[in-house]
Amino acid sequence: MLINFEVLSSCTGKIEKILKKEASYIYEQEPFCLVRTSDGMLVEITSQFSGYVKSMKAVLGQTVTPETVLIRIEEKLSHVCAGSD
Predict the structure, then answer these.
(1) Which of 32, 81, 67 minimizes the C-alpha distance to 52?
(2) What is the spatial order of strands in the sheet that 51-56 belongs to?
(3) C-beta atoms surrounding 1 within 10 Å
(4) pLDDT tens digits, residue range 39-68?
(5) Which residues lie across from 60 on neighbouring strands?
(6) Which of 37, 47, 48, 71 would you call most buried, defined as having the most Cβ atoms within 10 angstroms of its Cβ?
(7) pLDDT at position 73, please?
(8) pTM reported for the whole predicted model
(9) Which long-range contacts (CB under 8 A, 24 or more apart) does 33-37 make?
(10) Number of DSSP helices (H) and strands (E) in the chain, helices first
């Protein structure tokens, strides 16, 4: 079973650096891009999920907001846990 996740930006600003490529594996809490906010701070955007980068929606120089989808992640579940009750 494949599960897809979308990761949104956690701040408003411009994408300054992209750290991951499509088809690469990303771990939970691993940074995948850097965003420069209007007050000059550089913010690491991290993934809340582990899996393969299905598509990188972030573009260098793009202005993003907390509603912007930056990355799509696909994870293959090898088993499904079911309750015994």
Answers:
(1) 32
(2) 2-8, 69-76, 51-56, 25-26
(3) 8
(4) 999 999 999 999 999 999 999 999 999 999
(5) none
(6) 71
(7) 97
(8) 0.84
(9) 33/58, 33/70, 33/71, 35/9, 35/11, 35/64, 37/11, 37/12, 37/13
(10) 0, 8
* Best CA proximity match to 44, nearest among 73, 6, 10, 21: 10
Q: Which of 42, 39, 49, 45 is nearest to 66 (CA)?
A: 45
Sheet of 13-18: strand order equals 42-46, 31-36, 13-18, 63-64
Q: One-letter amino acid identity for 11?
A: C
Q: Which amino acid is at 39?
A: D
* 26: enclosing H helix or E strand: strand 25-26
